[in-house]
Design a protein that fits this description.
With 880 residues, the chain is of the alpha/beta class. The chain has four domains: 303 residues, Alpha-Beta Barrel (TIM Barrel); 154 residues, Rossmann fold; 173 residues, Jelly Rolls; 120 residues, Sandwich (Immunoglobulin-like). The protein contains 21 helices and 38 strands. Strands 14, 15, 16, 18, 20, 21 and 23 form a seven-stranded antiparallel beta sheet that branches. Strands 11-27-26-25-12-13 form a six-stranded mixed beta sheet, with helices on both faces. A five-stranded parallel beta sheet has the order 3-4-5-7-10. Helix 5 packs across helix 6 and helix 18 runs parallel beside helix 19. It is globular and about 85 Å long.
Length: 880
């Protein structure tokens, strides 16, 4: 039985029962052109368009891939947060990546999400990249293989993975318009390679284009990428979606192969497509080609059993907590571990013995820095800070822990402490009361004297909408009834603020929209007339203003009030439409010399010190790149001071990408902890006290200084050609450059120590084919006294290359778990890809006939064994 609804023939059962799997070709034939065009853009910020009369539901997407946010930035549902991708990449643990993918898939189901927007495999070509922490590695092989297992795990439970950002979206500076100028060889061998590997090993159901241009053409309309390589050469038939607001054309993007413009409603789709059809610039077949991929993904969503437009929740099980904790400890890399004084035993692992005094110091110790910033950030369902976890271990052993912040080196005044001491007025519930008015009552709430921003107290007029929010850091792009409040509301926010200690407090305020802050009725910060653009909240927000409130009393309740109006005159043009945003912080204030002195005093009276420094989501985030490679503020001075006070000091660096370490020679032990997710504190404590033997290896090179990177003058705002990013380094990215230029890094790619030692011997190979297919085997023995896991890395070097090549390239790796004294055989398969390069003149892959060295080692600079092999016949090929 059929029924015609708005020109569309639909099955009545579809209308009654909701979305169903459809016959793709029959549905394309039956849909009206208006409904077809509707499917080519999003319905809203997170959902694809639907055609209910045809049984086509609204597929739900969500940001990933270290967590599943759900469908709201504002007041979003809590989520499990896994370590950032650079941490997972540094585990070199493919089964772990798979298990994380499965857990993320389960989280998607809890939030009724059909498509997870991840993983990210853009290349870490420079340490300053704002989103560098979102990718697995500087090496395309590690990047692609880790992504493949992530995808395999995500899609094993029916959720669709969306690989991103295709391609060369490797900086945030001018990311919407910059032109990545790359040679074809570098594009193929370095930047496309992780995408190719992921598609070959575990093809995702969706792929996201990047914002930038590639060699002159935006990737969202680049037919060479989307049609010639992705569809024809690689044979991939999934859905291509734009990055959010990343479409800049109609005809070009349609013909190139971009299926869906996000978010919705579309700007370059919809009526614009109909106009181009009527003008003959597009044909119905062009529309049908795009709709076909939309319907295929829709059918997968139906088959997954995940409800359409379902409620959102989150998971918390013992198994999940155990996986989060394992992921946190597995991502930690032991960079240095030396004896102290006359001892012959390395400082780590630490002992928490009865009566022992442990000093925990540093701004990253008391707060759980679970993730970098931007679209990767989620509201963690719970979090464990290093300080809490270390105190728990110490308490069980009878040791004591003292804490000192040591450095106030935040980029923006932290909201974490604020969130622990604010409540909705008249309650004990943490949060902020928010009242919205749609307009300014005929001008009475003007910006002039006596207007909205110069009042504090009750407003007589009844508000259109009221809610509460859980945080003083939010962006209002979703989760609110905009039909009631409009996109330019007047907003009053009230809260009770109770300081946790007496003395001066520093308040910081930045916003999307004009806002003033009042303390007990007095104007404390004016970000109304003083509003200037800044970098927060995807570049939409203002600069931060700071004020010290000099004499606040511990335990006393103060009234905080904010008045906000989002006026278009003060809005910074950006990719998202929003009704306002806020980043408000408060922290106990002390001069730099005072807090360092407190840390030194604590370190002197303690048996050992653990200094936790690093960055956070304010420093590493979408929307901007770092300005330098140094730890901010007085963190380096703090490390020097504590090391001078107590030689038994461990430095823990928590960053997503490399930083300089000017105190390295003075400290006996250094751990690289990355952003560790919900269980970062417990994962760190497990490694510090030896419950877990660290096995991570750096998935990126740590340079001694930024100038040692060959991208130093061709990255971000430093590029000598405005609007273009000249990839002048070619194929020499990361360790390939440091090897080629013979530059000594701070720590090489693949470096990571253990609490035990390993020996390598008996490297052999056997041929799978007469040309280049090999099985490489070696023996690895645990020569220490504790169990441990080793990551064996296999590199290939061309003995007499026909054209310039890196001295060696990683082509395989494997992990092996060994008991003390145990020996195991490690096997790595090497295919023809291990010996090939891209030949630009022939436009194909080439594995030249000749001799190659196969190298096995513990890092790129610690090669233990090698053997020579011959490729007996030259090979030529294209495709996956």
């Amino acid at each position: 039985m059929t029924n015609s609804v708005n020109g569309t023939t639909a099955n009545v059962a579809f209308i009654r029962d909701g979305p169903k799997e459809v016959d793709v070709e029959a549905t394309i034939a039956s849909l009206s052109i208006q409904d077809k065009v509707k499917l080519l853009a999003g319905k809203d910020f997170w959902h694809f368009a639907d055609v209910p009369a045809a049984g086509i539901g609204s597929v739900r997407t969500s940001d990933g891939a270290n967590g599943v946010r759900g469908t709201q930035f504002f007041n979003n549902v809590p989520s499990s947060c896994f370590p950032c991708a650079t941490g997972i990449g540094s585990s070199f643990d493919l089964p772990l990546a798979y298990e994380i993918g499965r857990a993320l898939s389960a989280e998607c189901k809890a939030k009724n999400v059909h498509v997870l927007l991840g993983p990210t495999v853009n290349t870490l070509r420079n340490p300053l990249a704002g989103r560098g922490f979102e990718s697995f590695s500087e090496d395309p092989f590690v990047n692609g293989m880790m992504a493949a297992e992530y995808i395999r795990g995500i899609q094993s439970e029916g959720v669709a993975a969306c690989l991103k950002h295709f391609v060369c979206n490797d900086q945030e500076h001018e990311r919407m318009s910059s032109d990545s100028v790359v040679t074809m060889r570098a594009l193929r061998e370095i930047y496309l390679e992780p995408f190719r590997l992921a598609l070959k090993q575990s093809p995702p159901l969706a792929l996201m284009t990047s914002y930038n241009r590639l060699n002159g053409t935006h990737t969202s309309e680049n037919s060479f990428l989307l049609s010639d390589i992705l569809r024809k050469e690689w044979g991939w038939d999934g859905l291509v979606v734009s990055d959010w607001t990343g479409v800049v054309s109609t005809v070009e993007s349609m013909k190139a192969g971009l299926d869906v413009e996000m978010p919705g409603p579309g700007v370059f789709r919809g009526e614009t497509v109909l106009r181009c059809l009527s003008g003959g610039k597009l044909e119905v077949e062009d529309v049908d080609d795009r709709v076909r991929n939309v319907l295929k993904l829709h059918n997968h969503a139906v088959r997954s059993g995940i409800p359409f437009n379902g409620a959102e929740g989150y998971r918390d099980t013992p198994e999940l907590r155990a996986l989060l904790r394992k992921a946190a400890s597995s991502s930690i890399v032991l960079l240095k571990n030396a004896p102290v004084g006359s001892s012959s035993t390395p400082l780590l692992p630490l002992r928490a013995e009865r009566g022992r005094k442990i000093a925990v110091i540093g701004p990253n110790a008391a707060f759980a820095q679970v993730s970098g910033g931007g679209s990767a950030a989620v509201f963690a369902s719970w979090s464990v800070s290093p300080l809490v976890a270390i105190r728990e271990v110490a308490q069980e052993a009878g040791a004591t822990v003292g804490y000192a912040v040591g450095a106030q080196t935040f980029r923006y005044v932290p909201s974490a402490e604020l969130d622990s001491c604010i409540c909705v007025p008249g309650t004990s519930t943490p949060g902020i009361r928010m009242q919205f008015w749609k307009d300014g009552r005929g001008g009475e709430w003007s910006h002039e004297e006596g207007g909205f921003f110069d009042q504090c107290g009750e407003i007589e007029e009844a508000e259109e909408y009221e809610t509460t929010t859980k945080s003083a850091n939010f962006l209002m792009i979703d989760g609110l009834p905009f039909d009631k409040i409009s996109q330019t509301p007047f907003i009053r926010m009230t809260m009770t603020f109770t300081p946790t200690s007496s003395g001066p407090w520093l308040f910081g305020l930045a916003s999307v929209g004009e806002v003033n802050l009042y303390l007990d009725g007095r104007l404390l910060i004016e970000n109304n007339r003083a509003y200037t653009p800044g970098e927060i909240l995807f570049g939409l927000g203002s600069s931060e203003l700071r004020v010290i409130a000099p004499k606040l009393e511990e335990g006393r309740q103060y009234a905080l009030e904010l008045r906000m109006h989002v006026s278009q005159e003060k809005m910074v043009p950006g990719p998202f439409t929003c009704a306002g945003g806020l980043q408000m912080g408060a922290t106990r204030w002390a001069e730099e010399g005072v807090v360092i002195a407190e840390a030194v005093s604590l370190a002197k009276e303690s048996d050992l010190a653990i200094v936790v420094v690093g960055l956070n989501g304010d420093w590493e985030s979408e929307g901007f790149d770092r300005k330098d490679m140094d730890l901010p503020g007085s963190m380096n001075a703090l490390c020097h001071a504590v090391l001078g006070a107590n030689e038994n000091t461990v430095i823990v660096n928590q960053t997503g990408t490399p930083v300089t370490m000017p105190w390295l020679d003075r400290t006996p032990a250094v751990l690289q902890a990355f952003y560790g997710g919900n269980e970062l504190g417990n994962g760190l404590a497990d490694v510090l006290f030896g419950k877990v033997n660290p096995s991570g290896k750096l998935a990126m090179t740590f340079p001694k200084r930024l100038q040692d990177c060959n991208t130093y003058e061709s990255f971000g705002a430093t590029t000598p050609t405005p609007g273009k990013v000249m990839y002048t380094e070619g194929i020499y990215v990361g360790y390939r450059h440091f090897d080629h230029a013979d530059v000594q890094p701070l720590y090489p790619f693949g470096h990571g120590l253990s609490y035990t030692t390993f020996s390598y011997f008996s490297l052999t190979f056997s041929r799978i084919s007469a040309s280049s297919e090999l099985t490489v085997q070696l023996q690895v023995k645990n020569t220490g006294v504790v169990s441990g896991q080793e990551v064996v890395q296999v590199y290939v070097a061309d003995v007499a290359p026909a054209l310039p090549k890196a001295p060696k390239e990683l082509k395989g790796f494997a992990t092996v778990e060994l008991l003390p004294g145990e020996t195991k055989t490690v096997t790595v398969q090497l295919g023809r890809d291990a010996f090939r390069h891209w030949e630009e003149r022939q436009n194909c892959w080439v594995a030249d006939k000749g001799r190659y060295r196969v190298l096995a080692g513990a890092s790129s600079s610690d090669i233990r064994l090698e053997v020579s092999v011959d490729v007996q016949e030259p090979l030529r090929w294209t495709g996956l």
